[in-house]
């Protein structure tokens, strides 16, 4: 299980690195295109907004995919094993919750006894 977690962590780290690399590439390019459009080429059409918008959309998609939880489809080869492990975790969770409920019920049925205190005890 540790190897699977390491692989998942490595994939997320690579995705984060790709996202931040894209930011560092897209921001200066967008600024440069805007300056060229506004300052050097005087046109009535703000053509630089089109590539800036496309680059922004790419960054948004990358950010969404960065935190998207990967799911297995029914057609995946290891779907049955994945779904079995998922159901097993749910059953173990339910069992743990049942145990906690039983302990809670036992604790609520206990009678609280006042502590006996002698007059000469320091508080």
TrEMBL record:
Keyword Methyltransferase: no
Chain coiled-coil ranges: 83-110
UniProt cross-references to InterPro entries, sorted A to Z: 2TM_dom
Annotated Pfam families: 2TM
Record-annotated 2TM domain positions: 8-88
Domain of life: Bacteria
Statement: the UniProt record of this protein carries the keyword Glycosyltransferase: no
Bilayer-crossing regions: 20-41, 47-67
Keywords: Coiled coil, Membrane, Transmembrane, Transmembrane helix
Name of this chain's protein: 2TM domain-containing protein
Upper taxonomic lineage: Bacteria, Pseudomonadati, Bacteroidota, Saprospiria, Saprospirales
């Amino acid at each position: 299980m540790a190897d699977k977690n390491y692989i998942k962590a490595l994939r997320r780290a690579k995705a984060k690195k790709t996202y931040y690399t894209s930011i560092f590439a897209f921001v200066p390019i967008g600024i440069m295109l805007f300056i060229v459009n506004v300052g050097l080429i005087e046109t009535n059409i703000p053509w630089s907004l089109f590539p800036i918008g496309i680059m922004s959309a790419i960054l948004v998609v990358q950010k969404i995919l960065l935190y998207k939880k990967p799911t297995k489809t029914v057609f995946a080869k290891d779907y049955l094993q994945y779904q079995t492990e998922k159901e097993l975790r749910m059953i173990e969770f339910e069992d743990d919750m049942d145990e906690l409920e039983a302990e809670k019920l036992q604790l609520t049925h206990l009678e609280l006894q006042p502590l006996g205190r002698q007059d000469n005890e320091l508080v």
